[in-house]
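Researcher: Re-running this chain for the archive, since the previous output was lost when a drive failed. Same request as before.
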Amino acid sequence: MLAPSGVLARASGPLSAPGARRRYALVLTVLILAAAGFAFALLAGDNPMPVGSEGFWRIAHRRLTNVTVMAIVAVCQAVATVSFQTVTTNRIITPSIMGFESLYRAVQTSSVYFFGVAGLVAIQGLWQFGLQIALMVGLAMLLYGWLLSGRYANLQIMLLIGIVLGGGLGAVATFMQRLLTPSEFDVLAARLFGNISNADASLLPLAVPLCAGASALLWMRARRLNIMALGADTARALGVDHRRELMIVLFLVAVLMATSTALVGPMTFLGFLVATLAYQVADTYDHRLVFPVAVLIAFTIIAGAYVVMRTIFSAQGVVSIVIELVGGLVFLIVILRKGRL
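Model: Regenerated structure tokens:
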């Protein structure tokens, strides 16, 4: 862009150069097309009825629940992980470090250990789903409130204690699993792997508002997240109440992670994989631009993996395992390249 005097005008902003804006628009367009294509493949794949007929749409409508669940998981994991990494100013940790998934495993294992397979069935349903979310968010806020409001409030200590609590809950769950009968363990194992098939359509009336509300609030705080990414001291110097903003963001992250985990089970490395790719592809600091890219990448990965595994390998049940394997490999690569991201 040229100024009236003929001198190249200086511009600022998240995508200041025209080339960067074109590249971002191209990336967003490709991701939207890929996400829409995989969603249609999930609805129409292996559909025996003619396309456009009443029977075709009736079968597609039944599959819409799985696509909706994938969208919820994509939004929860992507928005929560990007926000969590911003407020902690660390791009190699995820909200899973706070023990959400270990608590989920402990609740599921305890149900089978004390009440048998009937106990696992008993914790299904809308009220039980809401109770699990409330328990996870309550534990997280208790941890945040205690460790971030004391005299020695320290974010790093809070993360360390989250790791210890997660490890402790995981150890208790492992001990109880060893005392289960083989049949009980088989039933429990199916619940402890993240699987879209674990989701129940009756849970969506609660899951959708929680996901939409928490992610919308984080989207509205995108400008504050941009400042929080500069660090605590800089944020305070720019007039942001850092501790208040930190607590609000961590609460919303806890709601998103608890919703995703209680709905489909643990997805340890999905958020990390999505956030890492979103930073690289979006190539901007502005969270208003990073959030859409992260959500589209998450949905494309989940839906694409299900389409490939179902149509080629007829093994959609192991999709989450493949995603976790790829996410774990990316995590190791990032760790080895730390300092260059």
